[in-house]
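Write out the 3D structure for:
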Amino acid sequence: MTITYRRAVPEDTPACIALRGLTRENAFSVEQLAALGITLESWRSAIADDSLPGHVAIAGGNIVGYCFGHRDTGEIAVLALLPSQEGKGTGKALLDLVIEELREQGFKRLFLGCSADPQVRSYGFYRHLGWRSTGTFDEAGDEVLEYDLS
């Protein structure tokens, strides 16, 4: 099935929230997201005001993955895929789109929180793509990785 990519729009929010609960690792339910302050309204608003620019991957008319970054900080906020998209380059393509968008906004360094457990897929995924540990951890206990754009 062909994958197409496009910039996220506010109307994508319900599908993004639903997909977040279907990921194989690090899934979050609607309730868990709400407990973190991430609601349909807050996410939709952040896409609309461009404070959370992102891209979605579409297959068969449905969102199968997405990636969003914070415009003001350079943090990659989330990269999520349906399990059927793992290992197909979809995640890398989405991440590359957001990296390029943040680079165009003038960022020289990006960062994200990632599991410090080598058994978790994201651990190897980001490191393989050149992300490096800062030696620090965020409030969620995730290791902070950085990506040099200079």
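The beta strands are 4-7, 54-59, 62-69, 76-81, 109-114, 132-137, 143-148.
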